[in-house]
């Protein structure tokens, strides 16, 4: 389906709401849920590929953030385990504590870098999605304007 079909489906949805019988009290519309759900399903099918791709990218971004956090937690656990094994004398303990601190700081730094990278990636995906939606909205407005003439 193309964008014109999307516009037609949105127009049909709008018409369905506008022409729905009204309840005498509260001016609420009575809409057939089956028809509404079928129309919504058709609208979803006609969404531009950019929207679907953005949704997949957002899920991938979330997965990357989770992996980064898991990796950071694993590194912290390893650092703590390593430090616990080095308990034989004070020099070894001091070195182990310094190494553990270094590993923890490195893990935290790496986790922060991963999170910042994921945030920047997500922002770019959302910016592209916003631009695609703005283009689609302009197309919808233009199509409706042409239909009204």
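Sequence proposed for the structure above (149 residues):
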């Amino acid at each position: 389906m193309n964008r014109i079909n999307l516009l037609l489906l949105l127009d049909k949805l709008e018409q369905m709401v506008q022409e729905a019988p009204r309840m005498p009290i509260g001016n609420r519309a009575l809409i057939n849920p089956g028809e509404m759900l079928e129309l919504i399903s058709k609208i979803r099918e006609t969404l531009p590929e950019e929207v679907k791709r953005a949704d997949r990218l957002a899920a991938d971004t979330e997965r990357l953030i989770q992996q980064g956090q898991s990796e950071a937690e694993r590194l912290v656990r390893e650092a703590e385990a390593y430090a616990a094994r080095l308990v034989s004398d004070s020099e070894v303990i001091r070195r182990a504590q310094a190494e553990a601190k270094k590993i923890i700081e490195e893990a935290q730094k790496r986790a922060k870098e991963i999170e910042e990278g994921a945030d920047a990636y997500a922002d770019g995906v959302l910016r592209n999605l916003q631009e695609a939606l703005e283009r689609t909205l302009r197309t919808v407005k233009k199509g409706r304007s042409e239909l009204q003439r």
